[in-house]
Structures are given as structure tokens and as C-alpha cells.
Fold:
Amino acid sequence: MLRSPRLGSYSFSLSLIACLCIGSTLVACKKPEADAGKTTESVALILGNEDIVQLGTSEHGTGPVISGSLQPEIRADLRAEISATVVKVHKENGEPVRKGDLLVSLDSSVLRDNLNSAEESMRAAAQSLDGAERQFQRMKSLQAQGMVSMQGLEESEVKRNAAQSEHVASKARVAAAKQQLERSEVRAPFNGVVSARKASAGDTAQIGKELIQVIDPSSIRFEGQIAADQMGVVKIGQRVNFRVNGVGQNSEQLSSQGTVKRIDGAANPVTRQVSVIVAINAKDRPPVVGLFAEGVIEASTKPVVMLAESSLRREGDKVFAWVLDGNKIVKRGIQLGDRDTRLGDWVVNSGLSTGEKVLRTTNSNLKDGQQFTLRTDASTKVGQ
Structure:
């Protein structure tokens, strides 16, 4: 079989051209990657003063852990003192009240009838006493003249005394009827806020049924529990830093301070913990009661370096912080201690020292050794 030399050379030329094209394509693809890498390395991080935190020392209290809830010291659970039907509840939950304000009205129709009957009986008794007194005085005068026997005088005196006793008893019945009528109106015993409404119109209120609860918000205190083995380091007057769950910025936690006011002398028979009453400072007083709180009783304080959670980068069990070293940022490993219950910051045991500067917030785009420029320096260079 014959082969054409021209056809063979033509095929070879096409192959060579194809290889050259492929090679030029690979070079063009790699060149943007190299240029892109070169651009990334040349870009510096621009920071402002608000992005940097200079570390200092803070007082960190250490002591027994206390946990409990916020409760009002002044609270009244108003209950029914008579058996009657609830006519109207005048206040709702959260409404402020003043001493003497009407809160709940009970049916008083029967009680008013009893009071009217008692008052009529008292008037009749008063008239009987007045007549018996006049009769006794007449018999006494006649007996002095010898016109009435001593027996007649004594009988009139006995009638006068019986009428006097009946009059006193009728007064007591009127007072009792008035008291029962007053109990049909439940009033606020002090200035405060309605915290729990437990009755509605139409309910049958038996004696002892809880109708409404009133608290004084200015008397909120922290009722907590501590372990019995920590009793030796807790004293009245010590400062307590605690956090209230559910109240604060972004519905997280509210930091508050207080002082130990009272220590219970007996441990709880179930939990074997000791109750501690903490008086809360007026400016740190939470707006509501019943919330859970936990903190630390400051038995001792020491100066430490603390760092906020936003400045930390966690990778498994390791913790890092971005430290400013010259004109670049360095990823440095640190060791954390306890967390301050009042501020929420972490105590730094090692890795950072006072005076060093760290980034306030971190993200995954930062690189170890990345250069940075302060925004003030950048604006000066632009002006020049």
C-alpha cells in the first residue's frame, strides 16, 4: 500500500499546532492565578481605634458560687376572708397601685342586710336602755321617800343592767357586720404593682382562696443558695456579683451587684445548701421578679487581665487571640481561667500581658502575620 508524503507532513503540522495552542492556554490560565495571589499578599488590613482593645488589669472576685432567684421582700398574697362571689377585679397584672386602692369586689348584698339588721337592733337596745335607766332613777327616788320597797328598786336595777348589756352586745354585732362588709372589698395594703391576678368575675371565693398578689418592686432581693462547705468564707456585707438570665441587652443577661444581708442558720434538709439573702443596689435592680440568677460572692479580689468573648478565637480545645505586633497581627495561643459573672469577660491566665493590644472582634478571614494599617495613618498619607 502506498503512503502520500504530503499527507503525512500535513498531519504532523496539525499536531504541532494543536500542542502549541494547548500550551499557550495553560500559561494563560496560570498567569491570573499568580496575579491573584500577588494581589492578595499586597493588600493590608485597615483598622480603626474602635477595632483595637488595649489590655489592662481589672479586679476579679473569687469566692463561693451562689444561685437562686429574684424575689420581693415586701409581698402580699391577698385572700378571701368571707365566702362570696367575685363581682369585679379592678386591676390587672402589671398595673401600679397605691395603698388603699380597690382591687377586688365581692358580693356584699347579704352583708349589707346583716349590717342594717344589726344597726336596728342597736337602736332598739339603746331605747330599752334609756327607758330602763329612767325607771331605775324613778324607783330610786321613790324608795328614798319610802314609797317603794327595796325589792322593787332591785328589780328595776336588774332590768337596767340587762338593757345595758344588750346595748353593748348590739354594738359588737354592728362592728362585726361592718367588718364583714369591709372584707367584701379587697384593697392594696401598700404602694406596689399587681404581680398575679388569680380570680375573675363570677368565681366563688371560699375563705382562704387567693385572689390577687401585690409586690413592692423596690424591695426586690436575690435569694440564693450556697454549698454548706463554703459557709466559712461567707460573711455579712460581702459584695456579690451576679447575672440575671433573660433580662438585658438582646435578651441575654443583666449584670447586677449586691451585698450579703442575711445568712440562714440551718441548711436545707433536701439539698443540704444554705440560703443567703442578697440586697440589690438600687441602680442594678431588675424590673421583674422570679427570674433565675447566679453569681459569685467576692470573698477575695485580685487584679487580672480579662478579655471579652468577641476577642477570642476557639479551635477545638485551643483558644487564640489576634495580637498587634508592630505593623502586623499575630495569632497567639492563650490560657483562660474563670469567667467573670458580672461582666461576662474571661480571665486570661497566660499568653497576654497588660498593655498589649488585641483585636476587638475576630473572623475567619484573618491570617497570621497579616499586615495592617491604622485608619488615622491611612488618612494622613492620603492628605499628603
In short: The CA atoms of residues 60 and 146 lie 101 Å apart. The chain has four domains: 45-63+304-383, 65-73+216-298, 75-107+184-215, 108-182. DSSP finds four helices and 24 strands in the chain. Residues 45-63+304-383 form a domain with the conserved putative lor/sdh protein from methanococcus maripaludis s2 fold fold (CATH 2.40.420.20).
